[in-house]
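Email to the structure team, subject: Longin domain-containing protein model.

Hi all, the expression group asked for a predicted structure before they design truncation constructs. Nothing fancy, just the C-alpha coordinates so they can compare against earlier work. One-line instruction: predict Longin domain-containing protein, return C-alpha coordinates.
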Amino acid sequence: MSASRSAPSDYEQDKGLQETKRHLKGLSKKLSQFPDRCTFKTGQYNVNFTSSLGVGYMMVCTESYPNVLAFCFLDELQREFIVTYDTKRTNSAVRPYSFIEFDNFIQKTKQRYNSPRSLSTKINLADMQTEIKLRPPYQLSPEELGSENGFSQHTPSKYKGIAPHQMLEPVTLAGVVSCVLSLLCTGLNLLRGVHAIESILQNEDEDFNYVIAFFLGTAACLYQCYLFAYYSVWRNIKSFLAFALICLCNMYLYELRNVWQILFHVTVGAFITLQIRLRLPQGKAPDYNV
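Reply from the structure team: attached below.
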Protein backbone atom coordinates (compact mmCIF):
# COMPACT_ATOMS: atom_id res chain seq x y z
CA MET A 1 0.00 0.00 0.00
CA SER A 2 1.40 3.41 -0.92
CA ALA A 3 0.36 6.07 1.52
CA SER A 4 1.24 9.24 -0.35
CA ARG A 5 2.66 11.06 -3.30
CA SER A 6 3.77 14.68 -3.10
CA ALA A 7 4.35 17.10 -5.96
CA PRO A 8 3.38 20.75 -6.51
CA SER A 9 0.39 21.16 -8.83
CA ASP A 10 2.44 23.50 -11.10
CA TYR A 11 4.27 20.45 -12.41
CA GLU A 12 1.20 18.38 -13.26
CA GLN A 13 1.56 18.94 -17.01
CA ASP A 14 5.29 18.50 -17.02
CA LYS A 15 6.34 15.51 -19.12
CA GLY A 16 9.13 14.53 -16.75
CA LEU A 17 6.77 14.49 -13.80
CA GLN A 18 4.18 12.46 -15.69
CA GLU A 19 6.86 9.95 -16.61
CA THR A 20 7.98 9.76 -12.98
CA LYS A 21 4.44 9.28 -11.69
CA ARG A 22 3.97 6.52 -14.24
CA HIS A 23 6.61 4.55 -12.34
CA LEU A 24 4.86 4.83 -8.95
CA LYS A 25 2.31 2.06 -9.39
CA GLY A 26 4.85 -0.43 -10.68
CA LEU A 27 7.35 0.51 -8.00
CA SER A 28 4.76 0.17 -5.22
CA LYS A 29 4.17 -3.46 -6.22
CA LYS A 30 7.81 -4.30 -5.48
CA LEU A 31 8.36 -2.33 -2.26
CA SER A 32 8.67 -5.52 -0.20
CA GLN A 33 11.73 -6.52 -2.25
CA PHE A 34 13.65 -3.34 -1.43
CA PRO A 35 15.24 -1.93 1.73
CA ASP A 36 12.90 0.05 3.99
CA ARG A 37 14.28 3.44 2.87
CA CYS A 38 15.14 4.12 -0.78
CA THR A 39 15.47 6.86 -3.38
CA PHE A 40 14.84 6.33 -7.10
CA LYS A 41 16.11 9.11 -9.38
CA THR A 42 14.30 9.60 -12.67
CA GLY A 43 15.14 12.64 -14.73
CA GLN A 44 14.98 15.80 -12.63
CA TYR A 45 12.77 14.16 -10.01
CA ASN A 46 13.34 11.82 -7.09
CA VAL A 47 10.95 9.15 -5.85
CA ASN A 48 11.56 8.71 -2.12
CA PHE A 49 9.89 5.92 -0.22
CA THR A 50 9.88 4.12 3.10
CA SER A 51 8.06 0.98 4.19
CA SER A 52 7.07 -0.45 7.55
CA LEU A 53 4.61 -3.13 8.74
CA GLY A 54 3.56 -3.89 5.18
CA VAL A 55 2.68 -0.27 4.34
CA GLY A 56 4.68 1.88 1.91
CA TYR A 57 4.91 5.69 1.92
CA MET A 58 6.00 7.34 -1.34
CA MET A 59 6.58 10.86 -2.61
CA VAL A 60 7.80 12.59 -5.76
CA CYS A 61 9.89 15.75 -5.47
CA THR A 62 12.39 17.73 -7.50
CA GLU A 63 16.01 16.60 -7.25
CA SER A 64 16.88 19.85 -5.43
CA TYR A 65 14.46 19.14 -2.58
CA PRO A 66 16.51 18.21 0.54
CA ASN A 67 16.59 14.51 1.35
CA VAL A 68 16.22 15.17 5.06
CA LEU A 69 12.93 17.05 4.49
CA ALA A 70 11.66 14.34 2.15
CA PHE A 71 12.18 11.59 4.70
CA CYS A 72 10.89 13.75 7.56
CA PHE A 73 7.71 14.15 5.51
CA LEU A 74 7.42 10.40 4.97
CA ASP A 75 8.21 9.71 8.62
CA GLU A 76 5.45 12.09 9.71
CA LEU A 77 2.95 10.35 7.44
CA GLN A 78 4.04 6.97 8.73
CA ARG A 79 3.62 7.90 12.39
CA GLU A 80 0.19 9.42 11.79
CA PHE A 81 -0.97 6.44 9.72
CA ILE A 82 0.11 3.94 12.39
CA VAL A 83 -1.75 5.94 15.05
CA THR A 84 -4.88 6.30 12.90
CA TYR A 85 -5.21 2.74 11.57
CA ASP A 86 -4.53 -0.49 13.39
CA THR A 87 -2.75 -3.44 11.77
CA LYS A 88 -5.96 -5.46 11.51
CA ARG A 89 -7.59 -2.83 9.31
CA THR A 90 -4.59 -2.37 7.01
CA ASN A 91 -4.19 -6.13 6.58
CA SER A 92 -7.87 -6.53 5.68
CA ALA A 93 -7.85 -3.82 2.97
CA VAL A 94 -9.21 -5.38 -0.23
CA ARG A 95 -9.77 -2.44 -2.57
CA PRO A 96 -7.94 0.69 -3.79
CA TYR A 97 -8.55 3.95 -1.94
CA SER A 98 -9.46 2.11 1.27
CA PHE A 99 -7.93 4.95 3.28
CA ILE A 100 -9.03 7.90 1.14
CA GLU A 101 -9.87 9.93 4.25
CA PHE A 102 -6.17 9.95 5.13
CA ASP A 103 -5.63 12.21 2.10
CA ASN A 104 -6.73 15.20 4.23
CA PHE A 105 -3.72 14.74 6.48
CA ILE A 106 -1.46 14.17 3.45
CA GLN A 107 -2.53 17.44 1.83
CA LYS A 108 -2.12 19.49 5.03
CA THR A 109 1.32 18.00 5.65
CA LYS A 110 2.33 18.50 2.01
CA GLN A 111 1.48 22.20 2.21
CA ARG A 112 3.77 22.58 5.22
CA TYR A 113 6.66 20.78 3.53
CA ASN A 114 6.26 22.81 0.36
CA SER A 115 7.25 25.81 2.51
CA PRO A 116 10.35 24.45 4.32
CA ARG A 117 11.06 27.73 6.16
CA SER A 118 7.93 27.25 8.24
CA LEU A 119 9.11 23.84 9.42
CA SER A 120 12.14 24.79 11.47
CA THR A 121 10.22 25.00 14.74
CA LYS A 122 7.84 22.13 14.06
CA ILE A 123 10.12 19.17 13.35
CA ASN A 124 13.45 17.97 14.63
CA LEU A 125 15.69 17.88 11.56
CA ALA A 126 18.77 16.96 13.60
CA ASP A 127 17.47 13.46 14.41
CA MET A 128 16.65 12.70 10.78
CA GLN A 129 19.95 14.15 9.57
CA THR A 130 21.81 11.87 11.97
CA GLU A 131 19.75 8.86 10.95
CA ILE A 132 20.30 9.49 7.23
CA LYS A 133 24.01 9.97 7.82
CA LEU A 134 24.26 6.67 9.71
CA ARG A 135 21.90 4.78 7.41
CA PRO A 136 21.57 6.60 4.07
CA PRO A 137 18.69 5.70 1.72
CA TYR A 138 19.52 3.02 -0.81
CA GLN A 139 19.88 4.54 -4.29
CA LEU A 140 17.89 2.51 -6.83
CA SER A 141 18.63 2.79 -10.55
CA PRO A 142 16.49 1.81 -13.58
CA GLU A 143 19.01 -0.93 -14.42
CA GLU A 144 18.66 -2.44 -10.94
CA LEU A 145 14.89 -2.59 -11.33
CA GLY A 146 15.36 -5.17 -14.07
CA SER A 147 13.72 -3.83 -17.24
CA GLU A 148 13.41 -0.71 -19.37
CA ASN A 149 10.54 0.69 -17.35
CA GLY A 150 11.90 -0.88 -14.19
CA PHE A 151 9.05 -3.17 -13.21
CA SER A 152 9.51 -6.69 -14.49
CA GLN A 153 7.33 -8.85 -12.25
CA HIS A 154 9.66 -11.84 -12.58
CA THR A 155 12.98 -10.15 -11.86
CA PRO A 156 14.52 -11.75 -8.75
CA SER A 157 15.26 -9.36 -5.92
CA LYS A 158 18.91 -8.51 -5.19
CA TYR A 159 18.16 -6.75 -1.90
CA LYS A 160 17.21 -9.61 0.40
CA GLY A 161 20.50 -9.35 2.21
CA ILE A 162 20.03 -5.68 3.12
CA ALA A 163 16.29 -5.60 3.63
CA PRO A 164 15.03 -5.43 7.23
CA HIS A 165 14.22 -8.66 9.05
CA GLN A 166 10.72 -9.89 8.43
CA MET A 167 8.54 -9.37 11.47
CA LEU A 168 6.80 -12.25 13.21
CA GLU A 169 3.28 -12.37 14.56
CA PRO A 170 2.72 -11.08 18.14
CA VAL A 171 3.93 -13.32 20.95
CA THR A 172 1.31 -15.47 22.66
CA LEU A 173 1.23 -16.53 26.32
CA ALA A 174 2.05 -20.12 25.33
CA GLY A 175 5.05 -18.83 23.39
CA VAL A 176 6.34 -16.86 26.37
CA VAL A 177 5.93 -19.91 28.64
CA SER A 178 7.79 -22.15 26.18
CA CYS A 179 10.64 -19.66 25.94
CA VAL A 180 10.92 -19.34 29.75
CA LEU A 181 10.95 -23.13 30.15
CA SER A 182 13.59 -23.46 27.45
CA LEU A 183 15.75 -20.90 29.26
CA LEU A 184 15.27 -22.95 32.44
CA CYS A 185 16.54 -26.04 30.61
CA THR A 186 19.46 -23.96 29.35
CA GLY A 187 20.39 -23.05 32.91
CA LEU A 188 20.07 -26.65 34.12
CA ASN A 189 22.25 -27.96 31.28
CA LEU A 190 24.85 -25.26 31.88
CA LEU A 191 24.95 -25.95 35.63
CA ARG A 192 25.31 -29.70 35.12
CA GLY A 193 28.00 -29.10 32.49
CA VAL A 194 30.06 -27.03 34.93
CA HIS A 195 29.69 -29.72 37.60
CA ALA A 196 30.77 -32.34 35.06
CA ILE A 197 33.94 -30.34 34.36
CA GLU A 198 34.66 -30.16 38.09
CA SER A 199 34.20 -33.94 38.35
CA ILE A 200 36.68 -34.51 35.52
CA LEU A 201 39.25 -32.27 37.21
CA GLN A 202 38.89 -34.29 40.42
CA ASN A 203 38.58 -37.70 38.79
CA GLU A 204 40.34 -38.38 35.49
CA ASP A 205 38.17 -41.45 34.84
CA GLU A 206 35.08 -39.31 34.19
CA ASP A 207 33.78 -39.23 30.59
CA PHE A 208 34.40 -35.85 28.93
CA ASN A 209 31.63 -36.64 26.43
CA TYR A 210 29.12 -35.88 29.19
CA VAL A 211 30.42 -32.30 29.27
CA ILE A 212 29.99 -32.02 25.50
CA ALA A 213 26.43 -33.38 25.73
CA PHE A 214 25.47 -30.86 28.44
CA PHE A 215 26.87 -27.89 26.49
CA LEU A 216 25.36 -29.03 23.20
CA GLY A 217 22.00 -29.20 24.98
CA THR A 218 22.61 -25.69 26.31
CA ALA A 219 23.36 -24.37 22.82
CA ALA A 220 20.31 -26.12 21.32
CA CYS A 221 17.96 -24.62 23.92
CA LEU A 222 19.36 -21.12 23.40
CA TYR A 223 19.04 -21.50 19.63
CA GLN A 224 15.41 -22.53 20.03
CA CYS A 225 14.78 -19.28 21.93
CA TYR A 226 16.50 -17.31 19.17
CA LEU A 227 14.39 -18.98 16.47
CA PHE A 228 11.25 -18.21 18.44
CA ALA A 229 12.17 -14.52 18.76
CA TYR A 230 13.53 -13.80 15.26
CA TYR A 231 12.71 -14.71 11.69
CA SER A 232 15.21 -16.92 9.87
CA VAL A 233 15.36 -18.77 6.57
CA TRP A 234 14.41 -22.47 7.00
CA ARG A 235 13.31 -21.57 10.53
CA ASN A 236 11.05 -24.61 11.07
CA ILE A 237 13.70 -27.05 9.84
CA LYS A 238 16.34 -25.47 12.07
CA SER A 239 14.06 -25.71 15.11
CA PHE A 240 13.36 -29.40 14.37
CA LEU A 241 17.10 -30.11 14.08
CA ALA A 242 17.71 -28.30 17.38
CA PHE A 243 14.96 -30.43 18.98
CA ALA A 244 16.57 -33.58 17.57
CA LEU A 245 19.89 -32.52 19.13
CA ILE A 246 18.16 -32.02 22.49
CA CYS A 247 16.74 -35.54 22.27
CA LEU A 248 20.12 -37.06 21.35
CA CYS A 249 21.90 -35.26 24.20
CA ASN A 250 19.35 -36.46 26.73
CA MET A 251 19.58 -40.02 25.42
CA TYR A 252 23.35 -39.90 25.95
CA LEU A 253 22.88 -38.48 29.46
CA TYR A 254 20.51 -41.31 30.42
CA GLU A 255 22.86 -42.54 33.18
CA LEU A 256 23.08 -39.08 34.79
CA ARG A 257 19.38 -38.17 34.65
CA ASN A 258 16.26 -40.01 35.73
CA VAL A 259 13.32 -40.62 33.41
CA TRP A 260 11.37 -37.60 34.69
CA GLN A 261 14.26 -35.21 34.10
CA ILE A 262 14.76 -36.49 30.56
CA LEU A 263 11.02 -36.31 29.90
CA PHE A 264 10.97 -32.69 31.12
CA HIS A 265 13.80 -31.60 28.81
CA VAL A 266 12.35 -33.41 25.78
CA THR A 267 8.83 -32.10 26.43
CA VAL A 268 10.06 -28.50 26.73
CA GLY A 269 12.04 -28.93 23.51
CA ALA A 270 8.95 -30.25 21.71
CA PHE A 271 6.79 -27.43 23.16
CA ILE A 272 9.01 -24.59 21.96
CA THR A 273 9.47 -26.31 18.57
CA LEU A 274 5.68 -26.25 18.20
CA GLN A 275 5.50 -22.58 19.23
CA ILE A 276 8.18 -21.69 16.67
CA ARG A 277 6.10 -23.38 13.99
CA LEU A 278 2.92 -21.62 15.12
CA ARG A 279 4.48 -18.12 15.23
CA LEU A 280 4.36 -17.23 11.56
CA PRO A 281 5.84 -14.21 9.75
CA GLN A 282 3.46 -11.29 9.41
CA GLY A 283 1.83 -11.03 6.00
CA LYS A 284 2.28 -8.00 3.81
CA ALA A 285 -0.73 -5.80 3.09
CA PRO A 286 -1.75 -5.46 -0.59
CA ASP A 287 -0.14 -2.63 -2.57
CA TYR A 288 -2.93 -0.08 -2.98
CA ASN A 289 -2.76 3.69 -3.40
CA VAL A 290 -4.54 5.92 -0.91
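The chain has two domains: 9-140, 173-278. The radius of gyration is 26 Å. Ping us if the truncation boundaries need rechecking.
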